[in-house]
Specification:
The complex is a heterotrimer of chains A (231), B (224) and C (251). Chain A is mainly alpha-helical and 231 residues long. Helices cover 77% and strands 0% of the residues of chain A. The chains are: A mainly alpha (231), B mainly alpha (224), C alpha/beta (251). At the A-B interface, helix 3, helix 4, helix 7, helix 8 and helix 9 of A face helix 2, helix 3, helix 4, helix 6 and helix 7 of B.
Chain lengths: 231, 224, 251
């Protein structure tokens, strides 16, 4: 039984590795794209005029008010009916990035607002314009404060990228489903998949913690760790 | 013509909505009940038990919901545990939510000053009574914002029950798409709107409850 | 033409009128101290001068340029007006050295090495050469404020505005900061809002007494402390003297 399982595991390894590759690819691209989108939206909310702010709020609330799966369905199944056609992987990247952007915007806004107003006053008093003040004084602090929340967002994306399976991306969960359907060993296969995700979660949390420690500055960002989905 | 088909399909969307709401209701109940037990266990039970709870939470928070649903629905029958898709979805959503909720309640417990339990002891309450009459009532109030957040997440996450064949809102949407492919965009926009309205109503209601049960000058910060 | 001219400044927050027509002038290298009860608009006046809170009415000129004119590039003006905050407002993410050099690097566009060399000089001047690589959270209140002063000095301003620079400090740390300020007398113009009467008396060229949003009286320390004309000034100085005693000074 044990050797049997070992062989079976070895046999499915290449498939699992390729699925893992897609999962990581989806996660890294979407967290990065979502980060830039999030910064733009957060700055729009904090510093924008009424119209910009309203637009950002609208976008963020629409995304956060609907399930990721619906968003993926609209992009992948819905948009072709008006002539916009994406491959599964493109649709997944787009959906995950747009989704993550809204969540990242919310906690980036929180961390921007948690930088005391005196910092902006001091920057302006030195003769910096608003843009310079944001670039050199506000963001370097806000981004550090946001690291714990960002770490949660990374894990969120890592896990929710599994939804891309439903629109046909051959990521980790999809490969698992494929192997299981051919071997009828659902329990073992999904246990292995679960362990891979678990290890990925633990390892990436650890890596981000190290990065945070490396970037940490006395007195900044001692913000408490927030729950993964408290975003 | 397309409009007619759309109107014809509204009842099936309504059926889907009911299933989505039932999924949400059952799983939030399971998640809350279990979450409270886990959180109090982690704070007040013996060390080995607290440690086991910690491991349970780490595991359930560390694997994707979809994988968890697959494990329960496709995997468990291999060892003789069979569930219909709806039950499997409730179990999966509920267990996962319990791990997140436990974290919320634990945060709340930690923010209750130690003096509270000392005061309960000095009235002659034993540990169990102190937890029940002093800690849990405060903990629940402090947890309302976090719980609200979890509720809307769960509501959205029920869409993943689609993956194991529960005929909820998303699945009904796909059925309509199969019947009339032209309707796809409008149907899923409509479904998005339904979710949005549900999340909106839930947020407003829960915010109201949160305000009503707020203990004066005593609340917990929550990252929304 | 005086270096700084403030003419008939009015400022309200909501319904509350804080400044009700304040005018005064300052010359190069002069040290002027503004005293008066709390909530009387002293800090607001400083914030009006560097436009952190633009006045509702009135004009301000610096070296003949009208600050209050909308067409004036306020960022250029602020380079020439140093500001030292009550609660320091050091940039939390930067070391003491970078706190002082960032204005030079990013605003004055001075090359990095030169900027940091200059920052080093200023920090040495305020006695903090040993703390250059510390972050604000690692400094004492008095040290923070001295970094704040060095940050303002490094920009070679025409005038430095001090907004109650010692109010947030523990009593034993006040002396160091006042010593630094004293050492700057006659080298750069300073407009100082403070409750340190001893310091005002020993160091100021002129003292302005404000109450209720207007300047009640101004004059040399000698005139003000021994021979104030207005009854309100006498009362205020009397109360302060009774509260803190004569020895309460800035070293």
């Amino acid at each position: 039984m044990a050797t049997d399982f070992g062989q079976f595991f070895l046999h499915s390894l290449p498939n699992l590795m390729s699925g893992l590759g897609y999962t990581l690819f989806l996660t890294f691209i979407s967290i990065t794209a979502g980060f830039f989108l999030g910064i733009v939206l957060a700055l729009g909310r904090v510093y924008g005029n009424k119209i910009v702010n309203g637009f950002c709020v609208g976008y963020i609330e629409l995304i956060r008010g609907t399930p990721l799966l619906v968003q993926l369905f609209i992009i992948y199944f819905g948009l072709p009916s008006i002539g916009i056609i994406f491959s599964p992987i493109q649709a997944a990247l787009l959906g995950l990035s747009l989704n993550s952007g809204a969540y990242q915007a919310e906690y980036l806004r929180g961390s921007i607002q948690s930088v005391e107003s005196g910092q902006m006053n001091a920057a302006r008093s030195l003769g910096m314009n608003k843009f310079q003040s944001i670039q050199y004084v506000i963001l370097p602090q806000a981004l550090r404060i946001a690291i714990p929340a960002w770490s949660n967002e990374f894990i969120y994306l890592l896990q929710y990228s599994s939804i891309a399976y439903i629109i046909g991306v051959a990521e980790l969960t999809a490969e698992g489903k494929f192997i299981a359907a051919h071997t009828f060993r659902y329990l073992e296969v999904f246990a292995i998949i679960a362990i891979i995700y678990l290890v990925l979660t633990i390892v990436s949390t650890e890596i981000i913690d190290r990065i945070a420690k490396h970037l940490s500055i006395p007195g900044i960002g001692a913000a408490k760790r927030v729950s993964l989905r408290d975003i | 013509m397309a409009l007619e088909t759309l109107i014809e399909s509204l009842p099936s969307l309504f059926d889907g909505l009911v299933v989505t709401l039932l999924l949400t209701a059952f799983s939030i109940i399971l998640g809350t009940a279990l979450g409270v037990v886990l959180a109090t266990g982690r704070s007040y039970a013996s060390r080995p038990i607290a440690y086991l709870i910690l491991i349970y939470e780490k595991i359930l928070r560390g694997i994707p919901l979809l994988v968890l649903l697959f494990l329960i629905y496709f995997g468990l029958p291999q060892i003789g545990i069979n569930m219909d898709p709806f039950t499997a979805a409730v179990v999966g959503l509920g267990l996962r939510s319990s791990a997140y909720q436990a974290q919320i309640y634990r945060g709340a417990i930690n923010s209750i000053p130690e003096g509270q339990i000392h005061a309960a002891f000095s009235l002659g309450m034993n540990k169990l009574k102190a937890i029940r009459h002093v800690i849990i009532p405060q903990m629940l109030r402090l947890s309302i914002p976090g719980w609200s957040n979890e509720f809307t997440i769960l509501l959205k996450d029920t869409s993943l029950a689609f993956g194991i064949g529960v005929i909820e809102l998303m699945r009904q949407g796909r059925y309509i798409q199969v019947r009339d492919p032209d309707l796809i965009l409008i149907v899923f926009l409509l479904i998005a709107l339904i979710y949005f309205v549900m999340v909106f109503i839930a947020n407003k209601t829960l915010r109201y409850i949160e305000k009503k049960y707020q203990m004066a000058g005593y609340q917990m910060e929550v990252h929304r | 033409m005086s270096m700084l001219e403030v003419k008939d400044i009015y400022k309200s927050y909501g319904d509350v009128q804080i400044l009700k027509g304040v005018s005064f002038i300052m010359e190069k290298e002069e040290t002027k101290v503004i005293i008066g009860p709390s909530g009387t608009g002293k800090s607001t006046l400083l914030r009006c001068i560097n436009q952190l809170s633009p006045p509702d009415k009135g004009q301000i000129w610096l070296d003949g340029e009208e600050i209050t004119n909308r067409k004036t590039n306020i960022n250029k003006i602020r380079e020439k007006i140093g500001f030292v905050f009550q609660d320091f407002n050091l940039f939390n993410h930067l070391t003491a050295l970078r706190n002082v050099s960032i204005g030079l690097e990013k605003v004055k566009k001075i090359e990095k090495d030169a900027a940091r060399k200059r920052a080093m000089q200023e920090l040495t001047r305020v006695g903090l050469e040993a703390q250059v690589s510390q972050y604000p959270a690692q400094l004492s209140g008095g040290q923070k404020q001295r970094v704040g002063i060095a940050r303002a000095l490094a920009m070679d301003p025409d005038v430095i505005l001090f907004d109650e620079p010692t109010s947030a400090l523990d009593p034993e740390l006040i002396g160091d900061v006042l010593d630094v300020m004293k050492s700057l007398c006659g080298k750069v113009a300073m407009l100082i809002v403070t409750h340190e009467m001893g310091f005002a008396r020993n160091v100021a060229n002129e003292i302005i007494f404000m109450e209720g949003g207007v300047i009640v009286e101004q004059g040399s320390p000698k005139e003000m402390f021994t021979n104030a004309k207005m009854k309100r000034t006498q009362e205020f100085l009397g109360r302060i003297g009774a509260l803190y005693g004569e020895e309460e000074t800035g070293g």
